[in-house]
Every structure is written in structure tokens, then in C-alpha cells.
From TrEMBL, chain A:
F-type ATPases have 2 components, F(1) - the catalytic core - and F(0) - the membrane proton channel. F(1) has five subunits: alpha(3), beta(3), gamma(1), delta(1), epsilon(1). F(0) has three main subunits: a(1), b(2) and c(10-14). The alpha and beta chains form an alternating ring which encloses part of the gamma chain. F(1) is attached to F(0) by a central stalk formed by the gamma and epsilon chains, while a peripheral stalk is formed by the delta and b chains. Keywords: ATP synthesis, Cell membrane, CF(0), Coiled coil, Hydrogen ion transport, Ion transport, Membrane, Transmembrane, Transmembrane helix, Transport. F(1)F(0) ATP synthase produces ATP from ADP in the presence of a proton or sodium gradient. F-type ATPases consist of two structural domains, F(1) containing the extramembraneous catalytic core and F(0) containing the membrane proton channel, linked together by a central stalk and a peripheral stalk. During catalysis, ATP synthesis in the catalytic domain of F(1) is coupled via a rotary mechanism of the central stalk subunits to proton translocation. Component of the F(0) channel, it forms part of the peripheral stalk, linking F(1) to F(0). The chain crosses the membrane at residues 20-38. It comes from the Bacteria. It is a single-pass membrane protein. This is ATP synthase subunit b.
Amino acid sequence: MNTLVHLAAEEPQNPLLPPIPELVVGLIAFAIVFGFLAKKLLPNINKVLDERRDKIEGGIEKAEAAQTEAQDVLEQYKAQLAEARHEAARLRQEAQEQGATLIAEMRAEGQRQREEIIAAGHAQIEADRKQAAQALRQDVGTLATTLAGKLVGESLEDHARQSRVIDRFLDELEDKAEAAGSAGAAR
Amino acid sequence: MSADPTTVLAFETDCHIFSGCGFPAPSLWSFIFEPIAGDADSSFYFNKPMLLALLSTILVVGFFWLAFGKAKVVPGKLQMIGEAGYDFVRNGIVYQTMGKKDGEKYVPFMVALFFFVWILNLWSIVPLAQFPVTSVIAYPAGLALLVYVMWVSLTFKKHGFVGFFKNVTGYDKSLGPVLPLAMFIEFFSNLLVRPFTHAVRLFANMFAGHTLLVLFTIASWYLLNGIGIAYAGVSFVMVIVMTVFELFIQAVQAYVFVMLACTYIQGALAEHH
């Protein structure tokens, strides 16, 4: 039958009245779509989407962990560096202090040695002077007695008298010299 | 009747203006097809809309099978497109209207509904098919009926018999003396009119769109004689414009149909009316 023939024929069915066979076919067609999507395909994609989200979140977590670790390492390095600087400063300070002590010690030692040397020198000079004075006194005594003996013609070899006389004489001499010295200083 | 284009066009191919042939305007007959198999008078027949509906099933299932069958964490092109469509319905429609918690359960239904309806609509501008399956009331009516049954049973399950009645009639004491009238109107609107408008909104849009396309197409052909050729050109431009417009309307109507379905289900699940 041709559609043109329909045009001349009776009115078609009310377009708002659904033909049952098409209703059924439509519902079956939809049921198939729904069945496939609900049972297989959408669970499929949901699983993958979840997996993807987990992976992205895992990646972000990993990156965060790496960043935290890097931060930690950086802080460790900084702390170590600061410690090393402190240590270096401490060592320098110590060295300076040690140096200062050393110098002070050396100086004290030097002072001490100098004083020792000077004292030794002084003692030596004193001893020499005493020796010289002793020798001189003896020589002067000998010379004087010898001279006096020659003058007197008599041996004045009597030791006991001799020494007493000479000593008395020399003491007088010394007293005079001292008196003259102090008078000179006073003047 | 087979897919012979001359019979599909539903008018004689040599009928032009100024040739004594009247304008073969589109009519309700443009929406009625001779069965491909079986007898139209019995309940066992198979016609073009049925074929297109089954083809839609194959298309939707086939597409999602190719896209999601072997879904990968790093998606291919097809999977990306599928995911975009899936995400559009899930986030853009279901989560927006029902919220993530309530909506999750109905995502597969709504996704299936959206893509099935959209493809049914899309046949309108596919060459050779050129017929929106949803312009036959049976298809949107069946789907609207499904949503309606879901809505009614969910409301019963959630609120019980009294709760169902309160929910359907929008029982609200604060309305005072107007309450009986409001309840009557709400009852009428929710329980009786709503499934009808839900189906007819989709049906009528597709019906009108197809009528316009048929009208301009027939006119383009009919006017191809003498001075009429100029008008045929205008008419043909309108065919192109209407085709593009239909492409838009098809998607919008599929979206609206699913959006309303979500709103109804959400109303059934809501604690207070």
C-alpha cells in the first residue's frame, strides 16, 4: 500500500495514543541499553576512574613526601653547616686564647731568665769583687810589710802582729775612704 | 514498503507547482509507516521506528562497549569522549539535581536514558533514516512510564501510604483554608498530568521538528518549477537551518527529559515535600 493512498483514506490513529507493539519494542530497546551500561560498562569505567584518581592522589602524595624529605635534608645540611661554623669559630677562639697564653708564658719565662742571668751576673761580680778585694788586701799587706821591713831593716815576719797591724791600718784606710765618699756624696 | 526513497518522501516525485499538482503537505501520515514485516492490523509487525530504536540500542551499547569495554587508566580517544559524555550526565544532571549521595544509585539509569533518547532524536537528521523515533508517542511514553513507576514505587517505599499521599498532594498545614484546593491541584498535577507532560514534551518537540523539516523539504522539491525555483532556494536554506536547529533541540530535549526524571526521583527521595 502507498502512503499517497492513505492521504485519501481514513484519518490515522490519534498520534497521542501509543501503539502497544512500539511501546514494548521501545522499552525492550531501552532495557538492553540499561542492562549493558549498568551491569558491565559503567562499573568498568567507574573502576578505571577510581583507579586513576588513586594514582593521581598517590602521585601527589609521593611528590609531597619527596618535598618533605628534601626539606628535611636541607634543614639537616643547614644545621650541620651552622654547627661547623660554630666549631670553626670555637677553634679559632681557642687558638687565639692558647696563643695569648703561650705568649704570656714565654714572656714570663724570658723575664725570669733575664732576672736569673742578671742575678747570676750580679753574684759573679760580687764574688769577683770580693775575691779581688781579698787578693788586693793580701797583696797590699805583703807589699806594705815587705816595704816596711826594708825600711826598718828588720823582718816583720811575725805573722800574728803583722796581720793585726795591717788589718788595723787597712780598716782605718777604708773608714777614711768611706768618710770621704759620703762627704763627696753629700756635697 | 521498503527503504525506497520515493515512498519514504510520501509524495509523488514528479509533482511540482504550476503542473496542476496540489501541494502534498505533511500530515499525520508522515509519522505512520507501513510495516517492514508483519501486519499493521495485528500486534505483530516491525516498522521503521522499531528498526531505528533497535539500531539506537546497538549504537549506544556499541559505542560504550568500544569506549569502556577495555577501559584504561590512560584513556584513548574514544574512551575520552565516552568519559566526557558519562561525566556530563553524572555530574551535570544527576549530581546537580539529586546530590552525590542520593544520585549515585540512579546514574546508570540516567546515563542510559540520556544517550538512548538522544540517539532516538538524532535519527531525525541522519540521511535515509530521517525520522526522530521519539516523534512516535509510544517511545517517549514508555520511557516516561518507566520513570513514573519508579517515582511512585520509590515514594511508597520511602514514605509509606500516608507519606505517599502527603508527598503527592503537597500537604502543608500553613496553607490553611486553601489546603483542600491546593491538595486537589497538586494531586492532579503530580499523579496524573506529570507523566503525560513528561512524555508529550519530548514527543511534541520532535514531532514539530520533524513536521517542519518535512514541510520545507517537500516545499523545496514542489517549488522546483518556473519562478518557483527562487522560492525553492529559500525553502532549501530553511531545510539546512532547521536541520542545524534540530541538532540542537534533540540534545536539549534529551537533556530536559533526563533532568525531569532526576527531579521526579529526587522528589520521591526528599525527606520533606
